[in-house]
């Protein structure tokens, strides 16, 4: 199998996958399904200064910490990447990600585009995937259907999403999350090292970008 691997002194290490998406595209749902289907992949639990949503569990969905603690971690170089997203800080623990990779596990980061840029710079061998919704209208439907944000927050996320989607070509692969099962299959192919069909080229995305970036 043509599987991408980092090599360190001849030792095979795990592969690092970074998944980003505009808010509401379905990234969290897809990543949860992927981790269920591939329990050998280690999902990196981020730190955030955001308050937990009612459905979220501490230490499972996120490590919820205070801003001061976050700043101390930044100062100590504890984050592989970190960013301010929608007014809250988010970061990936360097030690946790590196330890899993060194043990030979594939690791999945579910982060925003700013974090993806930082990780690509620090570890160019990582593989980055951008999830896109099938249309702006569907993106709005999903944000509303999730029932986690009020109207003002949804409007803010939608506006930001259009700006974020313009960054599609900074990623190695793009998966369009229209039919969920198909998108999951596409994502699985990428983490199996069989993602050539999903390279982020204009040709692969055809008319979709016109709708999404309008
Ligand atoms: P993100 O993590 O990208 O912000 P979520 O995973 O929270 O997005 O998904 C947003 C909403 O869209 C959720 O209610 C989810 O169940 C729904 N959703 C995800 N994928 C699809 C899909 N392919 N078709 C329809 N609804 C979807
Ligand atoms: P939410 O608050 O909806 O869970 O996440 C908001 C955004 O922050 C999403 O785009 C999510 O991917 C991103 N995010 C979550 N964890 C991290 C992280 O560790 N680093 C960065 N840069 N972004 C993150």
Describe this structure in words.
The chain is built from nine helices and eleven strands. The protein is of the alpha/beta class. The strands form three sheets. The protein has a five-stranded parallel β-sheet with strand order 4-9-3-10-11, sandwiched between helices. A four-stranded mixed β-sheet has the order 6-5-8-7. A hairpin with a 2-residue loop joins strand 1 and strand 2. Helix 1 (27-37) packs across helix 7 and helix 5 packs antiparallel against helix 6 (151-165). The longest helix has 15 residues, at 151-165. The radius of gyration is 17 Å and the shape is globular. The termini are far apart. The structure holds adenosine-5'-diphosphate and guanosine-5'-monophosphate.
Summarize the structure.
This protein has 214 residues and is α/β, with parallel strands linked by helices.
């Amino acid at each position: 199998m043509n599987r991408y691997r980092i090599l360190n002194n001849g030792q095979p290490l795990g592969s690092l996958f970074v998944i980003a998406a505009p808010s509401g595209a379905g990234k969290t749902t897809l990543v949860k399904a992927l981790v269920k289907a591939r329990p050998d992949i280690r999902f990196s639990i981020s730190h955030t200064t955001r308050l937990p949503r009612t459905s979220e569990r501490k230490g499972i969905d996120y490590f919820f910490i205070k801003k001061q603690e976050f700043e101390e971690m930044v100062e100590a170089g504890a984050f592989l990447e970190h960013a301010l997203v929608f007014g809250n800080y988010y970061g990936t623990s360097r030690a946790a990600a590196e330890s899993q990779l060194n043990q030979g596990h594939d690791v999945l980061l579910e982060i925003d585009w700013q974090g993806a840029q930082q990780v690509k710079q620090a570890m160019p061998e990582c593989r980055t995937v951008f999830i896109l919704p099938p249309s702006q209208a569907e993106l709005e439907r999903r944000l509303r259907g999730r029932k986690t944000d009020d109207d003002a927050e949804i409007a803010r996320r939608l506006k930001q999403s259009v700006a974020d989607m313009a960054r599609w070509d900074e990623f190695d692969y793009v998966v369009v999350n229209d039919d969920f099962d198909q998108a999951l299959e596409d994502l699985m192919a990428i983490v199996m090292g069989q993602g050539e069909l999903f390279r982020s080229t204009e040709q692969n995305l055809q008319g979709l970008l016109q709708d999404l970036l309008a």
